[in-house]
UniProtKB/TrEMBL annotation:
Pathway: Pyrimidine metabolism; dUMP biosynthesis; dUMP from dCTP (dUTP route): step 2/2. SUPFAM superfamilies: dUTPase-like (SSF51283). PANTHER family: DEOXYURIDINE 5'-TRIPHOSPHATE NUCLEOTIDOHYDROLASE (PTHR11241:SF0). This is Deoxyuridine 5'-triphosphate nucleotidohydrolase. Substrate binds at R73, S74, G75, N86, T90, I91, D92. The lineage of its organism: Bacteria, Pseudomonadati, Pseudomonadota, Alphaproteobacteria, Hyphomicrobiales. One of its GO terms (biological process) is dUMP biosynthetic process. This enzyme is involved in nucleotide metabolism: it produces dUMP, the immediate precursor of thymidine nucleotides and it decreases the intracellular concentration of dUTP so that uracil cannot be incorporated into DNA. Keywords: Hydrolase, Magnesium, Metal-binding, Nucleotide metabolism. InterPro entries: dUTPase (IPR008181), dUTPase-like (IPR029054), dUTPase-like_sf (IPR036157), dUTPase_trimeric (IPR033704). NCBIfam families: dut (TIGR00576), PRK00601.1 (NF001862). GO terms for molecular function: dUTP diphosphatase activity; magnesium ion binding. Gene3D superfamilies: 2.70.40.10.
Amino acid sequence: MTDQPLAIPVQQLPHGAGLPLPRAQTAGSAGMDLVAALPEGEPLVLAPRARAAVPTGLVMAIPMGFEGQVRPRSGLALKHGLTVANAPGTIDADYRGEVKVILINLGEEAVTLARGERIAQLVIAPVTSARLDLVDLIGETGRGAGGFGSTGR
């Protein structure tokens, strides 16, 4: 393990100009905050059960062998019921479009988001490449086919 952070090239699109780049808020934080690149003075109002792709104004060149995971912010989820609809969202290493966060309001009241508001977390994680090999029979385990709730509470 190295003390040097992974360098990720980031392009800030014109509508994201002036907004802070994602960064960890504390030394031990796994995630970096993504902010809303909404037009100044034009907040986004998310009604209950509504969803929207919120722009960040960022394009990233995540290195091969890594992905960006877009996760909810716990405070927004607890206080307002606001979460990432496809959590965690994935930013693939070969994606070069604008990063947008698909937010959904699971709360009972509308939520208003303004330009520059922290809306999600970005976690950079390694990816393991895998290949699926077709076989005639899969070996047994103690659990077997036991699924949801099969191990009790």
